[in-house]
Design a protein that fits this description.
2 copies of one chain form a homodimer. Chain A is α+β, with helices and mostly antiparallel strands. Chain A contains 9 helices and 8 strands. The structure holds a DNA duplex (30 and 30 nucleotides).
Amino acid sequence: MSKDNLIQIVQSVLPMSNAKAEQIAEKFKRRKTARNEYLLKEGSVCSESHIIEEGIIRSYIYDLEGIDVTTTFCSKQMFASDLLSFFKRIPSKENIQALTDCQTWYITYDDMQESFHAIPEFREFGRLNIINQFGILQQRMLSMLQQTAEQRYRDLVYANPEILQHAPLKYIATYLGITDTSLSRIRKEFVKK
Amino acid sequence: MSKDNLIQIVQSVLPMSNAKAEQIAEKFKRRKTARNEYLLKEGSVCSESHIIEEGIIRSYIYDLEGIDVTTTFCSKQMFASDLLSFFKRIPSKENIQALTDCQTWYITYDDMQESFHAIPEFREFGRLNIINQFGILQQRMLSMLQQTAEQRYRDLVYANPEILQHAPLKYIATYLGITDTSLSRIRKEFVKK
DNA sequence: TCCATTTCTTGCCATTTGCTAAGTGCAAGC
DNA sequence: GCTTGCACTTAGCAAATGGCAAGAAATGGA
């Protein structure tokens, strides 16, 4: 029930003294979210940024034809929020939903903003988090440019096996940019090997 | 030769007084880069972040098979740098090269860092820039997930026609995630319509 | 100007992926 | 037990894309 986990996560993003890490961790509050509940619904401004302590979260949007497209899966120690909505204070196009029961640590925009200007280490911490998110997305973009759907599926299986256990196939398919039919075929081949 | 252009760009990212915008613009220096010259080579730490006043820039990396993959095209008013390398002070995997003669405004890491902690408006400006880059990448990821190569090409033609005029087909192809052969065929169909 | 190189197009065929529809298995609720 | 809905698989065919190779067109240097 202590914030030790959170403090460790903070220090893994940016090494700093325990005292400073505790000061930053103080700004976060805990929340439990039940399976299928939403952390954010499209149309509202994202006012909380979550760090996941336990559970699996999925973000998705509806495209022009009203089809649901998975934009992100998040699991332990990852950040879940719509950065664009959170920092620019604009309505979100994303839906963020718990795929399993979740425990998260979250900070509100107002608290973040206050700490951002008041605490130099928080500034660095915050900026680094955004940069890390950018790096993750950049890596994923590269995989879209270079790799086949099967390779992307293979990578996901090795990197985040727990996601596979909790997300239905159709969610994984849109995350990989293919149809559920194709993913089913890929998975069939994958089992053979 | 004045910094008026730059000041306008700063204010378009984050509305602020002329005085503040000038203060931020003061931190940037001008550079001319000749066609084919590099703003960054892989292996070195990115120590300058550029805003393009004139010209076209391409970023690319070599994948595992040594094939060159275009990660970004940048044109007027866009930002060119390897954010991961710039902010995390790690060696870059990217190469950033001028496709045409360019004029850019750039800020060094040290100057950025100093202003980031000293000037509240600069903090907001800097953070917003990263967020905007993130948003651009997110949008592009969506297009990879939902759209066909032809749709992506079509969007690029309308959004950045000047890139098409200066980048050879093979660069555009890897940017879109397809082969140059396929892009040639897509382009052929495109002309018909 | 001429040559060499690069860029782009095209054809042929293989592979991947999409689309539609049917069928199976499973779990929840009546 | 039965129905219903959902998740997943499978099949057949169509469309998109890739791989390779040849040749045309454009470019850049000497």
